[in-house]
Amino acid sequence: GEELKALLLACQRADDAKFPFLIGAKYEAKVNPKDSSQIERLTLKHMDGKRFDMKKTYKVVTSSYVMSISKFQHRCEAQKQGMKCNALMVKYIKRARHIRQPKTCNVMVR
After folding, report:
1. 72: Cα within 13 Å, side-chain hemisphere
2. How far, in Å, CA of 29 to CA of 35, rounded?
């Protein structure tokens, strides 16, 4: 949970204060009204609305681009396996039965 939160915040800082898009989870960010690049609170939730356990470790698939621009402390499984994130993503896509484009964006910014 903490690593995912750190990834989202690092990506937002590195990408002109734009939030990354998620599939399979959602988050709500409260931004500072005087400075939209400053995040006051970030809440991560499962699609059913239940909050993420911040002490738990979750598997995440992301692109090498996101990892390259997001400076944060993490334990990347791809590094342990000697695979780049994009290779893991291709492996996941090949094994997935269905990949659906979400109907809505799972980001709420206030």
Report:
1. 20
2. 13
pTM score of the predicted model = 0.64
Q: What pLDDT, on the 0 to 100 scale, is given for residue 52?
A: 92
- What are residue 29's DSSP bridge partners? 42, 109
Give the pLDDT confidence of 18-42 residue by residue, as tens digits: 777 778 888 888 888 898 778 889 9
Q: Which residues partner with 41 through β-bridges? A: 30
Tell me, rounded to whole angstroms, the distance of Cα 17 from its chain centroid.
Answer: 14
Residue 89, phi then psi, degrees to nearest 5: -65, -45
**What single-letter amino acid sits at 54?**
M
Give backbone dihedrals phi and psi of 85, rounded to 5 degrees, phi first: -60, -40
* Average pLDDT, integer, range 64-73: 72
The DSSP bridge partners found for residue 28 are: 43, 108
Rounded distance between C-alpha atoms, residue 10 and residue 20, angstroms: 10
CA 41 to chain centre: 15
